[in-house]
Amino acid sequence: MSYVVPIGPYHPSLEEPIHAKLYTEGEIIKDAEVFIGYNHRGIEKLAQEKNFIQTLVLVERVCGICSHSHPFAYAQAIENIANIEVPKRGQYIRVIMAELERLHSHYLWLGIAAHLVGYDSLFMHIWNVREKIMDILEAISGNRVNYGMIIIGGSRRDISDDLRRDILQVLDEFKVEHEKIKEIILNDKTLAMRTKGVGVLPKDVAIQMGTIGPHARASGVKVDVRKDAPYSSYEDFEFDVPVVEDGDVFARVVIRALEVDESIKIIKQALENLPEGPVNLGMKIPKVPAGEFTQRVEAPRGQVIYYVVTDGGQTNYRLSIHVPTFKTAPTVPYMLRNNSVADAGLIIASIDPCFSCLDR
Amino acid sequence: MQKFKSIEIKKEEIVPIAEKMKSEGIRLLMIHGYVDKEGKKVISYQYEVGDTVEAYTVKGEDVLPTISHIYDVAASWPEEELHELIGVTFEGLKMRGRLFLPDTMFEGKGQILVTPLSELVKKTQGEKE
Fold first, then answer.
1. pLDDT digits (tens, 9 = 90+) for A289-329
2. How many structural domains are present in chain A?
3. TM segments (chain B) (predicted)?
4. Which of A38, A209, A294 lies nearest to residue B74, judging by beta carbons?
5. Nearest by Cα to B96 from A20, A337, A359, A38
6. Helix (H) or strand (E) holding A343
7. Global ipTM
8. Which stretches of chain A sit within 8 Å of chain B by CB?
9. What's the pTM?
């Protein structure tokens, strides 16, 4: 029997609203369609009414998880148009925040993945360990989300020597816990049996569809803006871009666990070699000439793309925001095909979607 | 340090450029669009060429050829979005209906009942009159 099974926009297996239509033959999904827009807030239009400082506050609220990546990309686009050079110490602090954000984002999703496969003890353990990172973020910025650390021309707050030592100590504790969690992820049968061979995206299809971020890297596509087009001094740090070839949900779990190791490496290097000097150029609204620039930032889920057009005035003439989920959600129908309806929620979640970002 | 290069092109050049980029293994970063101060539509096809974003911009065209047969969903999603956002028609683009919210939602047939689009249009036109 053929059925059309609707999932969402509001559904218990979805953290945020999206609408998927599953065309099924019995239990098996034969095709699918995805519809977005349920979180559309008109942020790009609103940005045209805001000055460059106000826009930082606005774009930080595009997403609650990668709330550093958005102003990070926007500020660099404006700085490039205005030829503003950020002090080295400010660049390093931006990187530290970006990598801490990656740690907490990957841990958030690893927890959700464990929860979705019914492994709730692992879910609770992962989220408990994640709190160490949330504490560091709070210690640096004063906030657990929407850190307000980016200003045009640098970082808003400095990291003191005492805080630097504390963070390094907490990171060492986090690393010990992460090794234990990684051991479970790589070797536990419960997780493997539920995720191996599910929602496969082969490498050639991933390339053809132009997908990005950990989603692409889990399908064997080595793409990472931090290496391909370094920004904010990423070229100063030694780190690898892990790649897993299998392209299934299990690979997407593993890739995030491996990327956590690399982020810890980057944060440690940045903290241990934090340059002396100012962290910003002051708090004035910058004079931005007419121009345009597209800035890419490797957010936890993949590339965040900010295309900014200015006309010499105090506001953005045009701001176009595109996020990783815009490049990963189109792969969902392909991944759903020939899987069972019971796996649909897990497969949709496996792209680590952010529909709040996607709809903006 | 990332770089940005903007080049204005004619609409006839869109497909040949996309084919050349694809054959060289260059990724389509995004297709952005907006309406400028003179009311002209500006569409920017942006490619990742190493550390540089190359932007090929077409101005003042309402109908453009699709490049979704070259770049698959990496092109079709932005094209669908631009069609809904600023009304550019992409010839050859296989539209699935609406990308941002399905058609039926506005008719009140979906899982959510909202004000039908036809009534919103009437209201907007009424205000203009």
1. 999 999 999 999 999 999 999 998 888 999 999 989 888 88
2. 1
3. none
4. A209
5. A20
6. none
7. 0.83
8. 6, 9-10, 19, 33, 35-38, 40, 76, 80, 208-210, 223, 228-231, 292-296, 303, 305, 307, 309, 311, 318, 320, 322, 326-327, 330-331, 359
9. 0.88
